Every structure is written in C-alpha cells, then in structure tokens.
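Question: Now follow the chain.
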Amino acid sequence: MEIKKIEIKFMKRDGFSSRSLEGVKHDKVLPWLSIVQSVEGSYDIAIGKNAKKSTDEGGFFIAPSGVSQSITHHNSTSSEKISCRWIFIDATVNGVYRPDAVFDFPTILPKAKIADMNDCFNELFSEEDIFSQYISCYKILKIIFSVAVPKRDAEGRTIHFAADYIKEHFSEKILVSDIAEHSNTSESNLYAAFKRNFGISPIAYLNNYRLSMAAEYLADSELSVNRIAEAVGFSDPLYFSKAFRRAYSISPREYRRQRRHG
C-alpha cells in the first residue's frame, strides 16, 4: 500500500517506575498502537499467539491496537527496579485504515533503530507544547513504518473489523453474533480467527479489552471502582474485581495506588 496521508487522531505519553513488579505478568488489549521503552529493566512480550520475545534495557517493543499482549516485567540488576515510558497512538492511513490493520510491525524494534527512537522519545517527553509533541509523534511513526511490512491476508481484515466493533461497543452487552455480523463472517469463522491470531475466544478477548480500559480509568480518572466496572461493561463489581486481579495480579484499588505513586 502506498501511504499518501497519515493523520494522528490521538496520542498519549506516560510512564512509571516500580520496584514491586519483578516477574509480574499483565495480559491486556489496548485500543491504541503502543510503543514502549524499558528504560531500566526489561520486558518479555508476546503478541497474540506469537512466540515470546524480550527487550534489552533501553529497548522498545511495538504492540498493535486491538491485539492481545502478554507482558512480564523484569527489574534492572543494577537499580533493582523497572522504569518505562510509552506512547499510545491512534492514527489513520490514507484517511481510512489503522496503521496496524494494514501493516505488520516487528514486536521488538531492531537495534539499528533504537538510538533514533530514543532521541524521539527524549524529545517527546521533554516538550510541553502540543505542537512539538505531535512533531515528535510523527517522527516516531516514521521510524516504525520504516520497519513495517504490508498485510496481505483476508483474515487480518476480519480481525480488524471485529476489533473496531469491540472498541466502539465494549461498554455495552455484546454477543459473539454481534461481532460476527459486523465483521461479515460466521460465528465459527470468527472464533477460529481469534484462536489462530490470539489464542483466545472472542469473549475472552472482549473481557481482556474491558480490563485494559478499566486499568486506564483507574490511572487517569477519579471514578470509583464500581463505576469503572459499570463503564467498561461489567454488571457485577465483584466479578470485575476478581477478573482484574487475575489479569494484573493485584486488586483494582492497589493498581490505582501503584500507577499514581509508582
């Protein structure tokens, strides 16, 4: 695909530092393309059903939007903590497609690109005005597109449509039949596509997505845990708390405390 236009619709920069996450695994699905740097320490990262890969200290991983990611944290041997910074990007290619719907990106950024990406991250996290931040963001996109390859399979488009539907309706009561209808496929084909690409069912994917959005609400809003559970589509707050603990190894309240004070 020839790229004629790139439009950034949303971007968010953030990061944290912690001594209490050694070996902790997080399973999540995010609605944005994510580029994450392990400033101190490292990550093991598996995208969908792909094999686990690891960052070096200072390295970057790239996680597509709408794809399940399994992340394990490892502290630095020198500082005994993990520090990271990341950017979330929602963009369109040629006014229509998400970048990761039409291109495959490497899970781990090649070593030859790390210095340039680190410079872009330094710019991004030092700039305060929004114009300079978006300039840095476009530079980051330029780097990851330089190592991308076009998608060719029809199943990838089915996953793209399904992920978009979940992104728009995750707070509602969703049935597999709703997702399949929107994706113009059968329920059995949808289930098979999710199992092949993510290793989980469409409903498990939906719940992971809801929990990932809940994690963002916990970090960035003042909503109560019960209100967040409702906002992301869980009708039972107790079930939400149990599901969140399974995914993040800590309670929603403890997660909020760590994100705000980490």
